[in-house]
Fold each of these.
Amino acid sequence: MTSTETPLSTAGGTDRRRWFALAIVMTAAFMDLVDVTIVNIAIPSIQRESGASFSQIQWITAGYALAFAAGLITGGRLGDIHGRKRIFLVGIGGFTVASALCGLAVNPEMLVASRFLQGAMAALMVPQVLSIVHATFPAHERGKVFGLFGAVVGLGAVSGPLLGALLTEWNLFGWEWRSIFLINLPVGVAGLILGSRFITESRAPRALKLDLVGVALVTLGLLMLLYPLIRGRELGWPVWGYVSMAGALVVLAALVAYERRKSARDGSPLVELSLFRVKSFAAGIAVQTVFGVALGVFFLVWTLYMQVGLGWSALKAGLTGVPFSIAVSVAAGMSVQQLVPRFGRKVLQAGALVMAAGVLLYLWESSHYGLGITPWQMALPLVVMGVGMGLIVAPLTDAILSEVPREHSGSASGLLNTVQQMGNALGLGLVSVVFFGTIGDRLRPDQVGAAFADAFRNSLGWVAAVLGVIFLLMFALPKRPAQHVEGEQAATEPKEPVLVS
């Protein structure tokens, strides 16, 4: 996460070793990205085979995002303090063990707990990836390396749902959905062995201290908010749930007060509150959080709609998402290289409106074609949505960070990643309200399809409304990111990308 690196051994004469190291850390990043998307497509299979309740299904996805978000900044600091290679190896080893526990889970409770562990281990592993790249490659090579990294991110987004669908359909060795987790084992073991040999150790000369109290407060506040949201419907929305959600605001207020004191005492808070004085950053954090909520809601309910509501196979559902993934990748490349340099912030706002238009078109088609809708009929709204999302995701990070002081860029990047994951977890929690909240408790088999289709349309309405809010929030972003207005030097200096999963 930091730009100042202290390698513990030189890279002279080790050209092949550093490219091996790059392949290892990129494989780990790919494994994390795929794991996020691969699970959604297997959710209906997990529910059928394990007997998981709807709330447990939400925890399987939200638990990973919550643990990942809570540990991201701390994971980066542990690498700065104790060595990036060491913490990376701990993370990939723990991620592999957690994947095995997920695959061997004997009940939904064990699977949920293992997913929390998996998210926590990813929080140790993922922040080291870009830091290791910084420490291993000289500045003039990083542009090419980050280009490769962007390709890996795109490949992970496209291949995750397809890989999940194929593994679930093939039912390797009779494992059914378990193979989506067990496939991580050989990859993780190879990464652990090769990483210990080829990655060069490095750490930051002036690393920030840990803020474990801050982590505890963030985690507690989010749990107090998410637990009643996810369990509330099943329990009949008890009073203690509303008390807990109100108490979450008190805990988060206590976090702000503690972070102020922590910053004054040793200058290493979990959240650098001074960043929020930068208007574009504060607005950008709001955009990133709300965008995470929209994505968290959409991807889970979309999977349930196709596989449970329409009765499609995992493979058919996975293939249906291919036009969306391709559209995101193509639009993302165009937005950064051609559109943002010319039109600035308007590209992001156009993305929000285009994505909202795709959502509304999807809502109309779902109503018009009913349960007889086909993948080909879904292709148009999915492509429109994908184009809109691509126009947002690629340039959003630069737009948010462009006015942040350089000395705070590492803290700002870490916080940006964290709030996106928190937004995603919150969106997954809200699925209980916007999707399951419209489905009756006791449905006859002949009522399931219509009920899930109605719930899907209700959710799409909420997603479109959230995208409208995002459009308005984007007015607070800079008209043009700094690197497009500061002249040639800014344009030629590679910026460290933010790893998003």
Note: The CA atoms of residues 238 and 445 lie 29 Å apart.
Amino acid sequence: MTKPADVAKKQVSENTSADTLSLQALLDLQRAAFLRDGIPDAETRIDRIVRLQAMLLDNAEEISEALTADFGSRPRELSIAADVAGCMIDLNHQKRHVKKWMQTSMPGKVLAKAGLRQEVRHDPKGVVGIMGPWNFPLQLTIVPAGSALAAGNRVLMRPSSITAKTTAVLAKLAPRYFDLEELAVLTSAHGGGSDFAKLEVDHLFFTGSPEVGASVAAEAGKNLVPVTLELGGKNPVVVDKDADIEKAATRVADARLVNGGQVCLCPDYVWVPEAKVGEFTDRVLARWRANLPAIKDNPQFTATINEKNFDRIVDLIDDAESLGATKHQVIPAGEKLPDAQTRKIAPTLLTGVKAGMKIEEDEVFGPVLTVYPYRELDEAITHITSHPHPLTMYWYGEYNENFSKLADSTRSGSINGNDFAINMFGPDLPFGGVGRSGMGSYHGKYGFETFSHARAVAFSTMGLAVSEMMTAPFTPKDVKTANVQMKLWKFFNNRARKKLGHKF
């Protein structure tokens, strides 16, 4: 088994990068190393996680500067909190618990007494491919990579080309902390994301849009590569009739502008009791005005990532307004927004949005919030269930019958009550979508299990052979045994049916 000391001896020079090898060569290199060294012990896995943490912590300022350069405007505080410090909780959890998680479990204790030993091994899959997004290019790439390393795998990491400067920094830093056989960071020098999706890795993990996710899954499916898809969607908010409107409006207003609205967990649209819509919208706009005395030249307001997305968001607003929606915007005095040069869009609230408008269907991923009125909760539920399942759903109000009705009547990757993205706090909850918002999950033990293979082991010391019982010749004793089995199962089934009131 590989020891940390052995890894240290194999460390390549700082000048070596993954760019010197082809995609296939890197995959072959890691797979050969995995087969050569065997399943890594807990000490080796912990060592790799510690080095992954060190890579971020040692270089936090350089990473933050690269993120600001990629976005054009992004606060250092957000980059440090989300993309550096934000990785540490889950990585620490992996580090603390991996020794326990990797142990073989023995569920079949009753059968063991009859001579049939049963075990479940938690084996690494081999080489894992991680495809990261641009909105949080470290957190949403490093955290799954940490889970894959904890599970004992080698990792090929492909951050987004959209945040090219951040990807370049990671590619430069990785060889200082990892041998290419352990973890390699790939760049556009290895082609596009579609090229990466074609690799015959042992598991492929993708975070991004549903449209690209479908393409990635299709490419991986050609090689029968298992995939985990962490996607997005239009996340709804429902404000209960008895909720604190000021608190709900303030928190939703803040949540909509996190990272310039470019978060897969951002609230996209809000259902508010009809009588309180005016108060809610007024308070949202007031919150934005208070927090943003300047926008265009404000380094604390995250810019839209690129021109393509800037144009797309502006078009969604213009389309809704042209078809009858009412636009409410917060534009500081003396500023002209939207501004294409800085890619800044004024925080926008839309009312009167109806079917047929693009924003009814498209995930905004920007500083735009839609507000709908409702008289009965069923109106909100009908709207939500008529659209693809979102990544998360927000509820403002008490943990009451209305909340239970909403939760029972809808589907989403998660539900957050009275605050933004609190399902991400702590490593004990699974993170993932459902349907169009994704498949599979990670964080904590869920991440370890995603990148592990639960391998069944059964070992017999019984005096009889199952194979002999299932092949000719079948004796009168075999016939009698089969008949007894049928009588017993019919007895148990009839008893259950009688208890349930079935007529038979």
Note: The chain has 18 helices and 15 strands.
